[in-house]
Each structure stands twice: as C-alpha cells, then as structure tokens.
Specification:
335 residues; alpha/beta; Rossmann fold; 7-stranded parallel β-sheet; 9 helices; 13 strands; 16% strand; globular; binds nicotinamide-adenine-dinucleotide; transmembrane helix
C-alpha cells in the first residue's frame, strides 16, 4: 500500500540499517511503491563479532535484501571517512536512520553511545548539509517502567539502550530548534513482522512463539504472561508511520504503537488459533525482573495529529497476515 501521493521521482533516499528488519522493509516499500526513487542502503551487515551477552554486534543479513535492486553499501556509521564519502558523492533528499545496536540487553555502554548517539549526530550534520529530511528510529525503551500510557516527555529508561535512544531524542530537539530540515523521531514500541528472523533471539516473541509451536513444542511463557501487556505493533504500521513522517513539516518525537496493549498470552493464543494447534503452555520465572517492561501502551494522539498516522492492524489481523511468512521461515531457515 502506498502512503503518499508524491512519486519521489529523482529523489535519493538513504536507509541506514537497511539490511536489518525495519530498514529492509523500508527499502522494499520504496522499490515497490516508488520505483523512480533512488534508494541507497547502508549497513554493517553481520560478522563474527559478538557482544558480551553472546548476541551478534549487528544483525544485518543479505537475505533480507534478496530482490532489492538499489545500491548497497557495507559500512559502519561510526566510520567518519565513509560519512564524508557519502556527503561528497551523494545528494540525499531523505535519510531513514535505522542502524543501531538494536539489542536492548547489550551491556557495552561505550559502543552503544558511540553507535546510537554520536554517529547519529554525524548523520544529522550530513542531513543538514544535504538539506535532507531525517526520520530516525527512537524507541519505547526510552520509557523504561514509566507509567502507562507512555507519553513523550515522561521518560525513565532503565537500560543503556533506552538511554541511548533518549539521548538521540534530546539531541534532535536541539537540532530541530536550529535547523531548517524536518527531523522526526519515531518511538517504535514492540515491532513484529516479515524480516525479523535474522535478529535471532532478539526477534519478536510473535516469531519465536510461532516457531516453538511449529516445532510442536509447548510455548514457553513467563509466569503471569496474561498480565504482562505490551503495545505490539505490526511492521506495516511502522512503515506507514515512517512514510507519513517523511513529508511532515512537524518535526518532533512521536510514539509508534497501536495504543492498545496486548498480553504475551494473547500472542500464543492467536498463533495457536491460526496454526490450528492446542499445545499446553509452560510457565517459567522471568529472569529480567528489574529491567523488564510489564505494561506499555503508546499514547499516539500526537502521532495521529501531526503525521496523520492511523494504525491499521489489530494483533488478530496482523498475525493472520504474518503467519504464512512465519511458516516459510520455519521451513527454509529453522528446520
Ligand atoms: N524492532 C523493534 O521492536 C524496535 C523497537 C524500537 C526501536 N527499534 C529501533 O529500530 C531500528 C531498526 O531496528 P530493527 O528491529 O530493524 O533492528 P535490526 O538489528 O534488524 O536493524 C539494525 C540494523 O543496523 C545495522 N547496524 C548495526 N550497527 C551498525 C553500524 N555501526 N553501522 C551500520 N549499520 C549498523 C545492523 O546490521 C542491522 O541490519 C533500530 O534503531 C532499533 O533500535 C526497533
């Protein structure tokens, strides 16, 4: 579905983190709906580098881009020479900045701040010099355990990831005051959908439960999962928010959720309904108490008002739409 009238002919779009989950969905959105736009993907892709928690440092995967015919650059946003090269040799009209240490459990504070905050500042400077609109990924992790509904301005991050995203937002506010370009931060809540498999254990629980069920295993939930509620948001709605944000004159920080929190138990129940199973759930203690969000619910009033954003997918519709892909990935990658 195309969300804006403009065909974006002769426009050049940079997508950082374009080999990741959300970035690759953006790349295909433009390819499919705005074939006359020039799309450049920049991503560090995956290597053997792992963080101290055992997870990969970057999750980009070429398979997320199979079928994408735009330009692809393998590079690190922390590399100032690369950014200079981009500044000299391209003229971007829009920058969608998705590249980040996206792992909320990463402990490397130095790498997190450098990659998520400092490199973002360099990209903002580039955007200003090109006159490009900046649409960047912030996160609901900025709220930590702040009371629901989460409202922009009431943040309380409880991990370095959330802190880094809040620092990006604070930086953006300063730039919004001083520059002419449009700068929009989108605080995604829990995103799920096509393209997330290569995030490994950091992929959404929708995918992980789906694969447990397809393997015939009893879905493993944390104790009290019917009362752990999150604002889960389908990838299509996240793309909608990004595209609507690219032409707004209303720079700012906006929540991207549904406004309707759902439980982890709901996810399993809907998946079992779609997959035609009736496996017994297993309940295990939650090891993340203290840095875990037990209730998130995006206040999306300002997102609707400023961007014309309107979430289109309830979880039932989204899982129905996604389940074929969950099965395909299971057959082709997991089995
Ligand atoms: N998926 C979610 O639920 C969610 C929620 C809130 C915010 N976000 C944010 O949205 C953005 C996209 O997330 P995602 O879910 O697609 O994660 P992802 O890990 O799939 O995508 C991030 C991409 O950035 C790349 N990358 C990492 N470090 C890089 C570097 N130094 N230089 C260049 N590329 C680098 C990775 O290879 C990866 O492809 C991230 O900024 C993330 O923090 C995601």
């Amino acid at each position: 579905m195309r969300y804006i009238e403009d065909d974006l002919k002769d426009k050049t779009i940079l997508i950082t983190g374009g080999a990741g989950f959300i970035g690759s969905n953006l790349a295909f959105y433009f390819q499919n709906n705005h074939p006359d736009a020039k799309v450049v993907v920049l991503d560090s892709f995956r290597s053997s580098c792992v963080l101290s928690n055992g997870n990969l440092k970057s999750f980009g995967h070429f398979k997320n881009l199979i079928g994408f015919s735009g330009e692809i650059i393998s590079g690190d946003i922390n590399d100032k020479d690369l950014l200079l090269d981009l500044e000299i040799n391209y003229k971007f009209d829009y920058i969608f900045h998705e590249a980040a240490i996206s792992d909320t459990t990463a402990q490397e504070q130095d790498l997190m701040i450098k990659t998520n905050v400092n490199a973002y500042k360099d990209l903002l400077e580039l955007a200003i010099r090109h006159g490009a609109n900046m649409i960047y990924a912030s996160s609901a992790a900025t709220y930590g355990n702040a009371k629901s509904p989460q409202i922009v301005g009431r943040e309380a991050p409880n991990n370095v990831y959330g802190f880094s995203k809040l620092s990006m937002d604070n930086l953006s506010r300063e730039y919004i005051k001083e520059s002419d370009i449009s700068i929009v931060g989108l605080r995604y809540f829990n995103v799920y959908g096509r393209g997330e498999y290569f995030k490994n254990t950091t992929a959404s629980m929708v995918l992980q439960f789906g694969h447990q069920i397809l393997a015939g295993k009893n879905p493993k939930l944390f104790e009290g999962s019917d009362k752990i509620l999150r604002d889960f948001i389908y990838i299509e709605d996240v793309i909608q928010a990004n595209i609507k944000a690219m032409q707004t004159k209303k720079s700012g920080i906006y929540n991207v959720g549904t406004g309707v929190p759902r439980s982890f138990q709901d996810i399993v129940d809907i998946l079992q309904h779609e997959l035609g199973t009736n496996l017994k759930c297993e309940y295990i203690p939650n090891p993340f108490v203290g840095s875990y969000q037990f209730h998130t619910e995006a206040d999306i009033g300002s997102t609707k008002e400023a961007l014309g954003y309107e979430p289109a997918y309830e979880m039932e519709d989204a899982i129905k739409d996604y389940v074929g892909e969950i099965k395909r990935v299971y057959e082709q990658e997991v089995k």
